[in-house]
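Side project, low priority. Logging it here so it doesn't get lost.
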Amino acid sequence: MDPHNPPPPDDTPALVDFSVDLTAQEGQRQAQVLAALGSDWDPIEVMRGEEAAYDLLYSGLDEEQQRLYDDLVAAGVLPPRGDGRAAA
C-alpha cells in the first residue's frame, strides 16, 4: 500500500472524468481581439517598434550597466543584440 495515495474509504464516490472543450470560446476570443486591433494593425511594424525601443533601452549604458547587460546575455536572460553588446 502506498502511504501517499491510500485507497479511498468505502463510502467515497469514485472520481469521474471531467473535460471541457474550449475550442469555440477560443475562436470567439481570437475574433474579438482581432476586431479590437482594427484592420490597420501591422504586426511587423509593431515588432520593428519594439526592437527600436529595446535598442534605445540598452543604449548609452555606463561601464557597470554594460557589464551587467553582458552578464545577463551570457546567462541567457536577455537575447544578444547586434554584436552581443548594447548599442553605444
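Brief comment: The radius of gyration is 26 Å.
Revisit when time allows.
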